[in-house]
Write a structure and sequence with these properties.
2 copies of one chain form a homodimer. By secondary structure, chain A is of the alpha/beta class. Helix content of chain A is about 50%, strand content about 10%. The first copy, chain A, folds into 2 domains: about 10-185, NAD(P)-binding Rossmann-like Domain (Rossmann fold); about 195-290, N-(1-d-carboxylethyl)-l-norvaline Dehydrogenase, domain 2 (Orthogonal Bundle). In chain A, helix 1 packs across helix 2.
Chain lengths: ~325, ~325
């Protein structure tokens, strides 16, 4: 790991210790960094440690950490206050509630407490940094660092500057994130949903519409992805996929299939199919397939699959 | 394998022996069926056999077939004519050129030659069966059976009836495809692009637009999928993904995130961004990332990754 832009022994802080924040704590600690964890709710903060210990044990079972889980867990400490958490920290990862007023209040608090150097990344999955982090002393040092959950398994992180973020802040966070093993995506302009959730939204919009129009069942739409489309997308993005799918590369593909895709796009210009009747129907379909009392067990299955996937990736050296 | 609806020894026919047709031949032969291969171009047909032998050897190396590759290859035979190919066949998989006039002519020929029982599946990836297969004696026995390439690795197949396809034809093809190990998706109404290419089109539309608007580079958009979104989609579809992503399941998720997705959908109602300048820019980006003379080697890499992915799936019993 190259986390050399953080001084030896200098901690990072995790503020907000729900699933996302606690997941970040593991990602940082696994890479050798000392992590201070703070949550306004002390119960949430203290629950994060046994949860992390469990996850670290699972990572060890899957061969995803070499160190003893206890050695990694020993780098996690709880802080009693925001001030204590960020005192001397090189970086703060903010993962509080996804609400603009809550994030703004935290930025005001950090503005009053933070040193002149600390960089602050926000886990916001959709709210732009400019909506809560501007016009403060810290503003040049705040940006979005949006993970996929859990960040210690799925490597992608979107870095999205506000209109006031400095280039140095982007460069620092890029190095830090690559240093702990994340895959960094630079979103160059603020846009609702950033890149990841916009791509997911586009696919979901079509999926909901196909269900609404009686074209295919939820389960058959799911099969189309998990037994078809998703295979290539698990190791190649959409541009590389089509680049390799025509003899002459992506331009050749676009010229051959552009008219079909254009026609499909023309057929889907209404602005969104998520009405209550449709939601109720999809909910019924899903519950027929997976009863509500089986959701928790299925989430455990998903997490095991993600760990197995990460282990397989790590094993083949993540050949890309 | 349960291919019991095909009589013992009764062959299936593959008409059109390009990459898709030859891939189908492997999928059928691997399951124990005798396959007759015909292509109007004799060079294409005879090239299919050594190509299939190579692929079967690779499948064997990856532990994806138990039989000796030669034993599977021995079930593939070339036919000198369309009549010879389909004589006594239980099923014909059509994989000729994706052009409505070419497919219509083949249907006219099959109508003149085919017995009263044979079922005909078309590999068409976008053209509806009603556009080329209607108003013939065989019409009730024709449907779309659209694979992902290669069908012997990626299991999904979309069955799409024409307006004249009989329910028995759908049921027969469903059993046959499940019998040879495919994952069957039923598309209940004819729609351009069916389900798979519509979902791909939706994601690509957003990807092209993000590139066009300078939000992110091709490579960063690709990373977002291969290091993020694509992980879950390789073993769960989009509905299951969101069903597990909110405490109360899919309706809970839709109520929480519906407004965000709706807003994203409202921002993307123009009908398609694939203009020549954009295509040229994406082509430049991709060629900077992967030179044209490296495309072939990268396709080999992709095929190896797909085989490794299939082997990993088979190993864990394809737990779903």
């Amino acid at each position: 790991m190259n986390v050399s832009q953080v001084n030896p022994g200098q901690p990072v802080a995790v503020v907000g210790a729900g699933l996302v924040g606690a997941g970040w704590a593991i990602a940082f600690a696994r890479a050798g960094l000392n992590v201070r964890i703070y949550d306004a709710n002390p119960h949430t903060a203290s629950a994060a440690l046994p949860w992390a210990a469990n996850q670290l044990a699972a990572l060890h079972r899957h061969g995803l950490i070499d160190e003893a889980p206890e050695a990694v867990a020993a780098r996690l400490t709880l802080a009693d206050s925001l001030a204590q958490a960020i005192d001397g920290a090189a970086y703060v990862q903010e993962s509080v509630l996804e609400r603009v007023d809550v994030k703004r209040q935290l930025m005001l608090d950090l503005d009053a407490l933070a040193g002149a150097d600390v960089v602050i990344g926000s886990s916001s999955s959709g709210i732009k940094a400019s909506d809560f982090a501007n016009d403060l002393t810290i503003s040049p040092r705040v940006l979005i660092a949006h993970p996929v959950n859990p960040p210690y398994l799925v490597p992608v992180v979107e870095l999205v500057p506000s209109t006031q973020t400095s280039p140095e802040t982007i460069a620092f966070t890029d190095r830090l994130m690559r240093g702990i093993g994340q895959s960094v995506v630079h979103v160059r302009k603020e846009i609702e949903g950033f890149v990841l959730n916009r791509l997911q939204a586009a696919l979901l919009r079509e999926a909901w519409a196909l269900q609404r129009d009686g074209i295919a069942s939820c389960e058959d739409i799911d099969k189309t992805v998990r037994d078809g489309l998703g295979w290539r997308w698990s190791f190649m993005g959409p541009f590389e996929t089509i680049d390799l799918n025509a003899p002459g590369g992506v331009a050749d593909y676009a010229n051959r299939l552009g008219p079909l895709y254009h026609s499909i796009a023309r057929s889907r210009t209404e602005d969104g199919p998520w009405d209550d009747a449709l939601i109720a129907r999809v909910e019924r379909d899903r519950r027929a397939h997976l009863p509500a009392d089986a959701l928790a067990a299925r989430r455990d299955w998903r997490d095991e699959r993600l760990m197995a996937f990460a282990a397989a990736r790590a094993k083949d050296g993540d050949k890309r």
